[in-house]
Task: structure prediction
Amino acid sequence: MSASSEANSRSAMGHTLGMKTAISVPTPVFEGADRLARRLKKSRSQLYSEAISEYLERHDPDAITAAFDSIYESIESGPDGFVREAGRRALRSSEW
Result:
C-alpha cells in the first residue's frame, strides 16, 4: 500500500490526521456538543469539524449568491399581471 493511499485510508477512519487546534468554549456549549456527538455516534472532533465546515459554507458570499441564484432560477420570472396593470394605471394618471 502506498503512503498516500494509507494516509487516505486512515483519514477515512477519523479526523485525527488533519490540522489540530485547541479552542475554548463555554461549558454549556461543550456539554451540548458532547451530548450531540454521542447521540450521533460521532467523535467530538468530527462534530466540530462538520460544524465549522457548515459555518464557513453559510458565511461564504459566493456560496450564498449561488444559493440565491439557484432559487431565483426555479421561480417563474414572467411579468406579473397585477404589477403590469398597476404600472399602466400609474402611467395613465401621470402627467408627461
